[in-house]
Amino acid sequence: MHMIFRQLFDPQSSTYTYLLADSATREALLIDPVFEQARRDAALVEELGVKLVATLETHVHADHVTAAWLHRQRLGSKILLGSKCGATGVDRSIEDGARIEFGRRHLEARATPGHTAGCISYVLDDKSMVFTGDALLIRGCGRTDFQQGDAPTLYRSVRERLFSLPDTCHIYPAHDYRGLTSSSVGEEKLYNPRLGESIGEGDFVGYMTHLGLPHPKQMDAAVPANMRCGKPEKDVPDADGMDWAPLSYTFAGIWEVQPNWLEENLDRVQVVDVREPDEYKGVLGHIQGAKLVPLGTLTQRSGELKNGKPVVVVCRSGARSAQATVLLRKEGLTKVANLAGGMLRWRALRLGVEGGTD
Ligand SMILES: N[C@@H](CCC(=O)N[C@@H](CS)C(=O)NCC(=O)O)C(=O)O
Ligand SMILES: [Fe+2]
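# fe (ii) ion complex -> structure
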């Protein structure tokens, strides 16, 4: 019974989303879809000719917002989430042992708490794959210092509930921060530096207590949003006329374009730099042909931009320019998007600039 399988990546949060579908009945599931990637994933669903029956989460994420609600609105998929997550807006609460069907195939839910209290891993019917969320990462594991995380609980979840799967079972985690894509139970038993077979519970707990990681950047916005399954507080606008670039609509309500697209399409848009003149001339330099219109003067000068060409706004980090997109919309410009990550990401990607220092 052949299965369609795709691993998708969100570079912003280093999250993996998985598409699974029965190739005969065309019924599909998405595991851990990301809000900003909803258009990409919906396009893939359409191109593969599958029907998204449900989205399921491995847990309430702290670092990105789920696209569960968006897909439900647009594609009619059901929202599935662990019963211990406590979120509202769920269509089906998943208990340990639940069976999640897609066509003739199914996943079995296995509660693997510890990173959060509600974490669930999903095991494919023939035990050839397990989607571990943040319970077990490749050569690592999810942190245990927030969302009712608990290191001894995580140790037991991994040892008893995941390492009991066949050594050949492929592991597909919710994240990887180093570029690895998958692993296997046998491999992690041997090489996981936190949870490998030779490591005792006390060693593990000591390791986790001293990780000293800063909280995820998006945590304060992501957790409350995910507790509503990603339902935004305000309406999501119509995407009419927003097909001039592969734009994504962020949970914060901003249309964004990625730096690599902009670099290849500079002649198709007006780049508007909303920093101050000294920054425009400063160390980061500016994008070739960018028009300098400091944020404070943008509203009064918006008429200069009304020539029909889409506008991409840029600043240092992408924050001021996000605000600029809101101001320009108020002035009646509709084809406006923010350059994701601003000049900082542009420079990090080594894209071309005028001025600036290396
Ligand atoms: N820098 C990342 C932090 C991501 C993070 O803390 N990820 C959690 C999963 S939600 C984790 O458990 N990371 C494990 C680790 O980094 O060792 C962000 O700001 O989003
Ligand atoms: Fe997580």
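# post-check
The pocket of glutathione (ligand 1) is lined by residues 13, 62-63, 134, 140, 142-143, 175, 213, 216-218 (CB under 6 Å).
The longest strand covers residues 3-10.
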